[in-house]
Design goal:
Layout (H helix, E strand, L loop, with lengths): L53 H6 L1 H12 L2 E6 L2 E6 L2 H9 L5 E2 H4 L4 H4 L9 H11 L5 H19 L5 E5 H18 L1 H5 L3 H12 L3 H5 L6 H27 L6 H7 L1 E2 L4 E2 L2 H32 L4 H12 L7 H5 L2 H13 L6 E5 L3 E3 L2 E3 L4 E4 L1 H4 L44 H18 E5 L20 E6 L11 H11 L3
Helix pairs in contact: 7-8, 7-19, 8-10, 8-14, 10-12, 12-14, 14-17, 14-19
């Protein structure tokens, strides 16, 4: 979920993108004299001219976008089933995109496909002033003090989930991360009673809800197709579950310190009314999407990349053993001390951004260098494209976590280089929680399991807007012994070694 939060920008120099020009982007419309429309990519147009690049964007999006940048640099145009779309790429163009005002680039108009998911009257179906109030209801769940509390639940939920795994066996890693992150996000953000009443049924409902976010939804979210019927049925059931919890609390007078309670207690200032159950459910879903789908995708890809690059595992295990040193539960400080793990995950975000593209509706003519993007067009940035700009990221197709280690840290070459969670004022509000959750899950799995890929090496699944690995994505797991997770040289390690060598 991309929502408003204060900008988090690093000081850096500009001009690192291919095709960069000396002129800066301008926020205000200017004379169109000497300006031209972004150049239309001629390749990858289907035999059905009215579809333009739509099918290619669905099947081979990275290849399509890379070709556009190779030909035209920082800006080019696609025809998506008659909808002309300007593609911004590279640090300078990304900055122009993210710095544009809401009066110029509208996220609300671009993401009407999310209205059937979140519901009427919330997020992308609410006027700006109401959306601002709703965001104010969300922020308390993501404060640092709350995040520290969430750390108490990470290992608890991992233990609870992985209790069903034996000493060894097989599992689908993407199904695993999807289910686990739903449970964790629900426990942390929505409270114990919501989590305790959950089952695999909720994970299935949530999966059906996610399945309604695809390329077709971008153009026609109301079509009576199976994916959208499942989406609508799933949302109705989730509304029922949430309404049951709020009704029980109102009946019993129970008060909990969780996000549901925050929303139940909230009131709109201008309208002087509480939130409806449907609005509460919509904001719950918005927060879950902000903290869950990115977490599930990145955790799955991080495990897959470790299987592709087994030499990376030993340094991560060493770091885990040093940081945790026999501890049972992680703290915020422990998680933040896992620097090698953090670099692995940043590189995972670079190579496998959960969202291929971020869209805006152009509300008035927008000028960038020699181009004008007309009102009525769509504007797009692609993390998958911008994260592979060779002028910023050396050898961009190589998975290399050390590219983010000091002093090399390639992020510092320019602003807006990593945009997997958006950028500027529309940076994903759930980013901090997502990264905290991912690091906690990866830490638990590194400490407790060894994995081996069973299925063929998975390719990205571009059928939805959230790009995970193609399924089945089967791994063979084996639990690590207590000896393996002890810190070398520690008393625990010596004791375990002595016990292992002693006669029975």
């Amino acid at each position: 979920m991309s929502t408003t939060e204060p900008e988090q920008e690093m000081e850096a120099h500009h001009g690192a993108g291919h095709g960069s020009r000396s002129a800066a982007a301008t926020a205000e419309p200017q004379s169109s004299e000497g300006k031209q429309l972004p150049q239309l990519l001629k390749k990858n147009v289907t035999r059905l001219p009215f579809l333009g690049h739509a099918l290619s964007l669905k099947s081979k999006p990275v290849e399509l976008l890379m070709e556009g940048r190779r030909q035209f640099g920082d800006m080019f145009a696609l025809n998506l089933a008659g909808q002309m779309t300007a593609v911004f790429s590279g640090p300078r163009a990304n900055e122009a995109f993210f710095r544009a005002s809401d009066e110029q680039f509208s996220a609300r108009e671009a993401y009407q496909m999310m209205v059937p998911v979140f519901g009427k009257g919330v997020v992308y179906d609410s006027p700006p002033e109401i959306m601002d109030e709703q965001l104010g209801f969300v922020y308390p769940a993501l404060r640092d003090s709350r995040m520290r509390t969430y750390c108490n639940y990470f290992d608890e939920e991992c233990e609870r989930y992985f209790a069903s795994w034996g000493r060894e066996g097989t599992a689908d890693i993407y199904t695993t991360t999807n289910e686990l992150t739903v449970f964790i996000a629900s426990r942390c953000l929505l409270g114990r009673d919501f989590r305790d009443n959950m089952s695999a049924h909720f994970a299935k409902l949530y999966h059906d809800l996610q399945g309604g976010i695809n390329l077709i939804a971008f153009f026609a979210p109301g079509l009576p197709i199976p994916a959208f019927r499942k989406r609508d049925k799933a949302r109705a059931e989730i509304v029922r579950l949430c309404s049951q919890i709020t009704a029980d609390r109102r009946r019993t007078g129970a008060v909990e310190e969780d996000f549901i309670q925050t929303l139940m207690s909230a009131r709109y200032k201008k309208q002087d009314r509480p939130l409806t159950d449907d609005e509460i459910t919509g904001l719950i879903l918005a927060l879950l999407f902000g903290g869950q789908h990115t977490s599930a995708v990145m955790t799955a890809w991080a495990n897959i990349e470790l299987l592709r690059h087994p030499h990376l595992r030993a340094p991560l295990i060493e770091e885990q053993d040093q940081v945790m040193a026999g501890k049972k539960l992680m703290t915020m400080e422990d998680i933040r001390a896992m620097h090698k793990l953090e670099r692995l995950l940043i590189e995972t975000e670079r190579m496998h951004p959960p969202l291929i593209m971020l869209m805006r509706k152009v509300m008035r003519d927008f000028h960038f260098d020699d181009y004008v993007v007309p009102k009525g067009w769509m504007a797009m940035v692609s993390p998958a494209l911008s994260h592979r700009v060779p002028e910023v990221f050396k050898d961009p197709d190589k998975f290399d976590p050390d590219r983010f280690a000091p002093p090399r840290d390639e992020r510092k070459q320019a602003t807006y280089t990593l945009i997997g969670f958006g950028g500027g004022k529309h940076r994903c509000i759930g980013m901090a929680f997502a990264y905290l959750q991912i690091r906690a899950i990866m830490s638990y799995m590194l400490r407790n399991f060894e994995l081996e890929m069973v299925s063929r090496d998975p390719a990205p699944d571009y059928s939805g807007f959230v790009v995970g690995p193609e399924q089945p994505c089967l791994v063979r797991y084996r639990r690590r012994s207590p000896l393996q997770v002890s810190v070398p040289g520690s008393r625990d390690a010596h004791s375990a070694a002595a016990a292992a060598s002693s006669p029975a």
